[in-house]
Amino acid sequence: KNPTINESNPNCQEKNTINESNPNCQEKNTINESEPNSQENTINESDPNCKENTINESDPNWQEKNTINKSDPNCQENTINESNPNCQEKNTIDESEPNCQENTINESDPNCKENTINESDPNWQEKNTINKSDPNCKENTINESDPNWQEKNTINESDPNCQENTINESDPNCQENTINESDPNCQENTVMTV
Known about the structure:
Blueprint (H helix, E strand, L loop, with lengths): L194
């Protein structure tokens, strides 16, 4: 079949397409898919809190690079809210938070490593980073025992509905070059940690 999306299923979205009426559908380059109001370079036009190149400014924990939450004095340009140890961005500092240092993650939190998100939280995954303590996580590979995890150009051989570079339009979990936005644990080019 032509690699399109299952147009009857709002959770299936092709790369560079958003379902503007469904806040769970986000374009590639989005952050933490479990938070429907957080979007990078994507707008959910039905949600007044979502603006192009901006995230939900009413939530101080979510800050996009080069965007500030003007209502939150702890949020500064090129920073996220460093008071939340699960939210860490490379090359940012929150000068009001002594644990956050430039080019460093919150060193008081053992789960936060430079260039890596909190590996104990499965919703936070950085591209090409694996949790070596999890035998199901391999570099550039997803958790092959979970049919909801599909990487671009990789198939879950245990799931007959998942095909390389093809979408099974009857199966909302299979998507080409996209993530299943309804499942916060599924992210493109990432691995799952537990």
